[in-house]
């Protein structure tokens, strides 16, 4: 069965065709980064308008790359995300579903991230621990089966991607900051600053990154006052990244041990971070799975895969779902 996946929850328009027998057939992505960069963050209205502009051409490109006239089903991100942006994908999916007379499946964006490693040659088997780290979420989840999710821990304040982005902004790196900060960190000394490893002394699996961000801010101000910021940026970036990654890895190892889980899946935009990928693989005794770099950040392929697994939940094409807030645990195992 051929599933068309549509992702428009934030600032990337992603489209893909996924064959349940043969895997990924075609995919295309349009990033809006340049449009939002001047504002230092995502402007929802601009995001929606650009999805309107780009979505249909991307669908046409993917269909023509694959030599396909119509898919067997359509999956779209129904939430969480920016409501206007979500409605563009939902509206397009509903319209095409009516035109093509095929089922339309609303997909939870974070379930998409969670199943992204299933696009790789060696997909993870259940059960596993999932560390989902993106711009909006930091979650540790015990995954017993597709749809069987128990939230073990989450962020009490900023998501880790958000912490990367805000710290990057402090360092004058622009938007989106995560990849830029990681690149700058390559040239820095990660031991230059002893930043806090937030919440590591707490027995739970929750995260908090605002204290770490504040600690960086204080050091930025100090370096600025001393006229030395330019020379210190790489060290600040490297020391921040080390503290954030140490926290993520340590909590993941602890959660895996507590739950008796021998596999870890790392997914979401921050899953593209090289230090995180390296440290998790080096320190976790079991198997570690990631999506390829391009499928860590938002994309249509992960939505197509999640949609294929949730086909039973296809609704009426006329029902457009857009849920800015939506709990992953509420999804349940498909019938
Ligand atoms: O999953 P994603 O594309 O969108 C959301 O669902 O939020 O994640 C985007 C987040 C941004 O905060 C971005 O800065 C971060 O992922 N990110 C990174 C890296 N690449 C993307 N953070 C750290 N290191 C990276 N290499
Ligand atoms: Zn995402």
Q: Topology, pairings included?
A:
Layout: E1 2-7, E2 12-19, E3 23-31, H1 33-37, H2 44-66, E4 73-79, H3 83-100, E5 104-108, H4 109-115, E6 128-133, E7 138-145, E8 148-154, H5 160-170, H6 177-185, H7 210-225, H8 229-259, E9 263-267, H9 274-283, E10 287-289, H10 300-309
Parallel strand pairs: 1-4, 4-5, 6-9, 9-10
Antiparallel strand pairs: 1-2, 2-3, 6-7, 7-8
Helix pairs in contact: 2-3, 4-10, 5-6, 5-7, 5-8, 6-8, 7-8, 8-9
Bound molecules: 5'-O-[(R)-(carboxyoxy)(hydroxy)phosphoryl]adenosine (KG4) and zinc ion.
For the residues shown, what is the average pLDDT?
96
The domain count comes to 2
What gross morphology would you assign?
globular
* Bound heterogens, unique: 5'-O-[(R)-(carboxyoxy)(hydroxy)phosphoryl]adenosine, zinc ion
CATH architecture of the largest domain: 2-Layer Sandwich
Radius of gyration: 20 Å
| Poorly predicted spans | none
In whole angstroms, the N-to-C terminal distance is 18 Å
The CATH class of the largest domain turns out to be: Alpha Beta
The largest sheet is:
5 strands, mixed
What descriptors fit this protein?
single chain, 335 residues, alpha/beta, Nucleotidyltransferase, domain 5, 2 domains, five-stranded mixed beta sheet, 10 helices, 10 strands, globular, binds 5'-O-[(R)-(carboxyoxy)(hydroxy)phosphoryl]adenosine, binds zinc ion
